[in-house]
Amino acid sequence: MLLDFVAAFGNWLPARKAVVRGELLRLLPFMAIGCTLGVVFLLNLKSDLLLLLMGLFVTAYALYSLAVKVKPAQLAGGWAVPMGTVGGLFGALFGSGGFLYAIYLNARLASKDQARATQSALISCSTVVRLSLFLIAGVYADLSLLLLALCLLPMMVAGLWAGRRLTLNMSREAFVRLVTWLVLASGIALIARYLSEVNWHL
Predict the structure, then answer these.
(1) CA–CA dist 147, 1 (Å, integer)
(2) Which of 5, 106, 111, 149 gets the most CB atoms within 10 Å of its CB?
(3) pLDDT, tens digit (0-9, with 9 covering 90-100), for 89-132
(4) pTM of the model
(5) Which residues are CB-neighbours of 92 under 8 A, at least 6 positions away?
């Protein structure tokens, strides 16, 4: 979450003028609700099964998107309710809610720059909410956790730079396809994480 906080602001600042405020404001309240629920669940419940279900859903969606050679359907604004809430919930539980924002925004906005900037702004707001809740819960009293985030920071910065260079001259169709491949990788990683936790317990 700490790395998300830095990465999101790093993406948002250079592209803040491209943020579509209407979509941002439509998603924000539901994202905040989802984040709050996610933090409560994270601190009080075992979420192994939810992790697997999320991984299966994400992988199935990505495979479907890659197999069907059509442009994403234009979603109605009402989709902000489930996408924002579940995105906030998954973001708090697994740090992986951004793919839902990407699905929603790429189906709502014609410009990849607007979609990317608005998603970065939304994730920035999400990280502020989660950071505040985790601080209140005392999660960051663990010094080793802060040191781990510090050690990972240089590679995250390198990833931000590489990602920005990669998508600079990319068409919207190619950008959406790249996001879909990344969503697929995230889904597979979640399933692998669940299986590794199950094997560890066994």
Answers:
(1) 14
(2) 106
(3) 887 777 667 778 888 888 888 787 788 888 888 888 888 888 88
(4) 0.65
(5) 34, 35, 36, 37, 38, 39, 41, 42, 130, 133
